[in-house]
Amino acid sequence: MFQSLSTLANKRIILGLTGGIAAYKSAELTRLFKKAGAEVRVVLTPAAAEFITPLTLQALSGNPVHQHILDPAAEAGMGHIELAKWADLILIAPASADFIARMAAGMGNDLLTTLCLASEAPIAIAPAMNQAMWHDTRTQSNVKQLESLGMQLWGPGAGDQACGDSGLGRMLEPEQLAELSGAMFSSGALSGLRVCITAGPTREAIDPVRYISNHSSGKMGYALAEAAIEAGARVTLISGPVNLNSPERVCRITVTNAQQMLDAALAQMGRCDVFIAAAAVADYRPASVAEQKIKKSDDTMTLTLVKNPDIVATVASHPQRPFTVGFAAETERMLEHARAKLERKTLDMIIANDVAQQGIGFNSDDNAVTVVTRNSEQSLPLASKSQLARTLVTLIAQHLAIPRH
Length: 405
Ligand code: C5P
Prior knowledge:
- The model has no long low-confidence stretch (mean pLDDT about 90).
- Helices cover about 35% and strands about 25% of the residues.
- The strands form five sheets. The protein has an eight-stranded mixed sheet, with helices on both faces. Strands 2-1-3-4-5 form a five-stranded parallel sheet, sandwiched between helices.
- The chain starts with 11 loop residues before the first strand and ends in a 5-residue tail after the last helix.
- By secondary structure, it is of the alpha/beta class.
- The protein has two domains: about 5-185, Rossmann fold (3-Layer(aba) Sandwich), CATH 3.40.50; about 195-400, Rossmann fold, CATH 3.40.50.10300.
- The radius of gyration is 24 Å and the shape is globular.
- Strand 16, helix 13 and strand 17 form a beta-alpha-beta unit.
- Bound molecules: cytidine-5'-monophosphate.
- Cytidine-5'-monophosphate (C5P) binds near residues 311, 326 and 327.
């Protein structure tokens, strides 16, 4: 746990606080940064100072707190441009709707916005606000604007809110923000890249209590998510129902059926560099879902099934297509079938495994695969799924370095 915090040693972090009840959590975040060996300078907007005292943050950061742009005493110490140049990372936590709007408009009407305008350091934003404010179309378009400017959006999380509402808008926890900050400085094979992984089975409802599914455990996809995190990527894991804990620092989106998995995958297009389809998507779903529990009256029953969308093929044909990796579980003529699948789905890479062999693949802890691309083939011997995931991540990183088409 918290292994990436070691990368924070000696890093210079500006922690900006804007007005919000989540400001109290930033005291803990300051402490975590300091503990990891980072240098921290805290900047408070006037609204933030209503929620937390500068003295608390001064004591925790070991540095004077910066509040005013036109403060002669502060400018005599470290002026605002100097401060902007000093930072290796600027993290705004909590970031209020007002602050996000001002940043999106390019305003520099307080110390924090001015610093962000003047700094070349990466900027990350951890929003915290009421769920309705978060969903407001103006906030959403402001957030998109900030993302399009290259700023990182960390959160918000979902859950109970101080105002009594529940939903998206909670600031991420200090530990998560510290981890994400640490990951910014990691220099792994996928450093700075965004990876999206599908994992686990899908469940296709027959009626309110029954469904069609398969025995996929999700282990391979989760192992890949962990390996990609280790390699410095930012990972979104779109997971069907599984019995696994979410790996640290992974953003997990939980889905039930294939259509939801497809929707979640398509929402990642444009902000995903690598897509890995490790899910065992149900090929078919019932043509209609019965509204009430189906009664057992006849001795036999017939279900009409319709084909599910092919998620990985849809991603691979998207105009903003990432480097796309699929899996092929085969029981015979493995390489031939895998290669045909690579072509048919227009994938960049396919990971083939022979599921006829005992003790590997589906629902097992180990796997042995052959990695196939248009012009290469590489067999990886039997290994634990986590070991294999690390090798696969390294191979993906190597192939990413080769120009495509
Ligand atoms: O066609 P087949 O199911 O054998 O292909 C397996 C690969 O395609 C896996 O990577 C799986 O995640 C992906 N797939 C998908 N959507 C489907 C079926 C398979 O993304 N509906």
